[in-house]
Amino acid sequence: MYETLSLYIDGQWCQGSRGETEPVINPANGKTVGVLPHASTEDLDRALAAAAKGFKLWRNTSAYDRAKVLKKAADFIRQRIEHIATTLTLEEGKPVAEARLEVASSADILEWYAEEGRRTYGRIIPGRSPAIRQMMVQEPVGPVAAFTPWNFPAVTPIRKMAGALAAGCSCIIKASEETPGTSVALVRALADAGLPAGVLNLVFGVPSKISEYLLASPIIRKISFTGSVPVGKHLAKLAADGMKRCTMELGGHSPVIIFDDADTEKAAEISAVGKYRNAGQVCIAPTRFFVHEAVHDRFVASFTKIAKEMRLGDGLEPTTKMGPLANPRRLDAMEQFIGDAEGHGAKILAGGKRHGNQGFFFQPTVLGDVPDGARVMNLEPFGPVAPIQRFSDFDDVVKRANALPYGLAAYAFTKSAKTATAIADALESGMVGVNHLAISMPETPFGGIKESGYGHEGGIEGLEAYTNKKFVTQIGV
């Protein structure tokens, strides 16, 4: 049922040349589901040489022909959705229904970029003389190094691969060693669709060693990273030495503001489903809840009820609503957040403990009356913990929502068009959802501000992230 794990270098599936490996663990039961090969420096050199060769070929392939390959790969992903979703759940833990949606979304992303790659338009700029012709054209930036985390093993890698490939770039992707099977399956679909050798390469290994080696190479001209703020800052510094372009999608800590005129029951349901999706391991998950004092008790009662009734279990079980955390590190982190919150006077309204005697399960947790000084109000929990505060004044809640250095996503619930416009304008965030949480689609820009990073994936902005703009002026002779 699980994907066969390999590296993919210059059109060939292979094992690491030095025989280094690590186990891949099923977080639902702690058992090994596969053995992952690591790339040696010799393997990385082969991948870099392949990417350089592949770029020369792929950049000169027409956007029309590139689109045909990407569309065919999207079709393969849809045909293989059950296998890929099962692989995803086995290695990451999320319910298989969520995994299916993620894999389907990855196919949509690939197909959208296939189409948009054919519209990498330039423009004509009127000259100051009839004899002068001026134009701006977009060209692929060059070979790309992409790095992705474990929480969305399908969507995050495909965003980077699709954007790069649609623009005409080659790519070396280092996906997460904790969830490698899904990325192997996606690369396999692209290879089977006819992507030329060298255009896409997949490697695994010790993350710091891989990233530092690839970023030091003059072959790499663009970096795309999704992960933590500290690691993103480190990679950005390394990239600066070679003046390499970067897209940084880093951590968040999304505020959710429930106004007194909101549909309280609906807001609680939407928020709870979003909070506990993928066990809260979502960079844009709603994570800091500010609820108007007039509706606070009703919202908390509805939200807590949903949390208490949520069924935990193996993601392959059809009745499971929330799976395990991805690794034991997250269990320790949840206990530390909750212990600190209690020490600051917060109340545990639901959950708060590990669940079961195997795997990495943690109960959906609701914390009430959480003070500003608690760690969970200042650092992203990245797990199923929902801290809730009261508010009464618009300006005050905006100040609290914007107080942190993060600015990835933010949400608000209100029936007032005036309030909706005012809060959307006031929130310091790269993305804002009003009355819903659906802020990530293939055709829309995805990215943050402040310490949540810079640059975008998705939308035309995500494609242009992989292009250079060249100005050409010529005069008749």
Describe the structure.
It is a single chain. The chain is an alpha/beta fold and 477 residues long. Helices cover 39% and strands 22% of the residues. The chain contains 14 helices and 24 strands. The strands form seven sheets. Strands 14-17-18-13-12-20-21 form a seven-stranded mixed beta sheet, with helices on both faces. Strands 9-8-7-10-11-23 form a six-stranded mixed beta sheet, sandwiched between helices. A three-stranded antiparallel beta sheet has the order 5-6-24, with no helix packed on it.
Instruction: Give the beta-strand count.
Output: 24
Report low-confidence residues grouped into runs of 5 or more. none
* Oligomeric state of shown chains: single chain
User: What's the helix count?
Assistant: 14
Strand content: 15-25%
CATH architecture of the largest domain: 3-Layer(aba) Sandwich
Largest sheet, strands/sense/barrel: 7 strands, mixed
List keywords for this structure.
single chain; 477 residues; alpha/beta; Aldehyde Dehydrogenase, Chain A, domain 1; Aldehyde Dehydrogenase, Chain A, domain 2; 2 domains; 7-stranded mixed beta sheet; 6-stranded mixed beta sheet; 24 strands; 22% strand; globular
